[in-house]
Amino acid sequence: MPEYIKRNAAYIVYSSSIGLKKCLVQIAQENEASRLALSIYQICKLQGIDLFIGGSFDDNVPRINIHSNNFNELKSILNGLVSSDKNLVFISNGKIIKTLPVYIDGRNPPPFDIGIVRHKSNNVIFFSVVEIALWNDIIRFGRFRTVCTRTSSYFSRAENFSALTKLSEQHDFQARSRTEISKFPIDVVLTWVDGADPQWLSKKDRYLGNSNVLPPYSTAHLEERFKSRNELKYALRSIHMFAPFVRTIFIVTDNQVPNWLQIDNKNIKLIDHKDIFFDESALPTFNSHSIETQLHHIDGLSEHFIYMNDDMFFGKFSSKEEYFDSNGIAKVFPEPQHIVPELVSVDDEEYVYAGMNAVNLLEKDFNSYPSRLMMHSPYSVRRSVMYEIESRYNDIYQTTARNKYRSRSDISPISFFYCHYAHLIGKAVLASIEHEYLALWTPSLALKLNKLLNTRQASNFCLNDAGVRGKYAAKIDRIVASFLEEYFPIKSPFEK
Question: Is residue 250 within a helix (H) or strand (E), and if so which, with residue range?
């Protein structure tokens, strides 16, 4: 298979001769990459080399810009840095190389980055990256004079490299050159429950025992809906590794705290159900639809936020533009499947009825038929739109909030209703994303997880345990635990 390199993704290198692979996986920089970029900048300046920092396509990846005429001087500096630090490597065309080749005048220098190795696990190398952009001669592109970087499809509308270098001394060129990048904060809201907690189980059993709350067909009370395999820990690792744009993570629970969680971390906030339910008579609740009706009540939550269940994970290095346009418009991700109210049967689960209820409401108000299901992936949400929905559809909102378990009278407030409503009022667009949904009951689970682990091409993925019960549960627990640890081996600052 051919070797290839893909920006903003896992860098996969295949070895066809022995049938093995090596994965180079880009992760969030934290501070190391910025410090390295600054060091390179200062050394080059001392040697009289013109360069500037900025212009990266990735908000959290520093970029060194230098003219190709100075490539050999830069090569000497970088070779010295890499040879003196075992954690520094060159990455060129999807491969790690030890030294940079000699640049022959008249030929394009090879495209390359300099990486900081953060962790090694089996055949996987996790690294932060500093981009190196080599600028060539001025060319004509339409009516604009442009300077071309190493990527032939990218042109900067600037007079020349020297002008850009001078500009960077007076202004934040990263901000000036990337006005298309959104500047608004983005938070994450994670809902979590520990279904093995004795106090929580007692509360759940007591409520079920004291009322005939569920019809015989319901699956809303089954253990699989509340089971924890420590997915939350790995969901947080995925944010730390692959979503550096996230500001604050709000974990919404029913008065529960994971024993491994570092609650003193300033980027984590625990939110109890009592903090967001205006009507406390609706508590306790064991209904995810009910909880979704209240998430926008979180104090201090940003206008733009991403809602995740604890079975959702970022799968590779991600940017905020995958989830929101730079003008704030949310991106929602539809499935090819539709809910057709006329075909809903008495055997369908509560979420199908929740979708049907939403379709009927929106068809009535908008003369539209928004029936497509949404991917079970992180949801891009506008807080103000949630308040608008709560006000406009207050009756069914309150009904859903008061249903202790999933019910056929629910709506799915975020995972279906919000996505279509926001699209209908022009606050969201239908988009696509590289997503994998894996049902843990599937017989080929181990093979599918292995493929996901080896390719690492999903921007996000979901490990949904609906239907997992009986004698296979323990085996699935072991498979999932091993997979998550291998996919996310780097401990996050949110752990003790």
Answer: strand 246-253
Quick: pLDDT tens for 445-455.
Answer: 999 999 999 88
Q: Which helix (H) or strand (E) holds 487?
A: helix 473-487
Radius of gyration, CA atoms only, the chain: 25
Distance CA 257, CA 123 (A): 35
Strand-pair category, 20-26 with 124-135: parallel
Question: How far apart, in whole angstroms, are the C-alpha atoms of residue 434 and residue 454?
Answer: 15
What integer best gives the mean pLDDT of the chain?
82
DSSP summary character for residue 25 = E
Indicate the range of 20-24, 194-198, 214-218, 442-446 predicted with least confidence: 214-218
Does an H or E element contain 231, and which?
helix 231-242
Q: Which two tokens stand for residue 447?
A: 């093979």
Please check whether the domain covering 186-487 is classified as CATH 3.90.550. Answer: yes
CA–CA dist 162, 18 (Å, integer):
48
Q: Residue 315's Cα: distance from chain center in Å?
A: 7
Give the pLDDT score at 209.
Answer: 52
9-11-15-21 Cα dihedral, nearest 10 degrees: -70
Ramachandran sector of residue 290 (left: φ over 0; alpha: ψ -120 to 50; beta: rest): alpha
Tell me the average pLDDT across 48-75: 83
Closest among 193, 186, 383 to 297, alpha carbons compared: 383
Q: Of 390, 225, 200, 220, nearest to 295 (Cα)?
A: 390
Residue at token pair 């991600």:
318
* Residue 156 contacts residue 170 (beta carbons within 8 Å): no
Q: How far lies 369's CA from each of 340, 364, 379, in Å?
A: 10, 9, 21
Domain boundaries, the chain: 10-133, 186-487
CA distance linking residue 77 with residue 71, whole number of Å: 10
Give the DSSP letter string of 372-421.
EEE-SSPEEEEHHHHHHHHHHTHHHHHHHHH-SS--TT---IIIIIIHHH
Residue owning tokens 């891009």: 380
409: phi then psi, degrees, rounded to nearest 5: -95, 5
Length of the chain: 496
Buried/exposed code over 416-451 (b: 16+ C-beta within 10 A; e: otherwise): bbbbbbbbeeebbeeeebebbebebbeeebeeebee
Residue with tokens 């089954």: 222
Q: Report the alpha-carbon distance of residue 11 to residue 3 in Å, rounded.
A: 9
DSSP 42-80: HHHHHTT--EEE---SSTTS-EEEEEGGGHHHHHHHHHH
Distance CA 416, CA 358 (A): 8
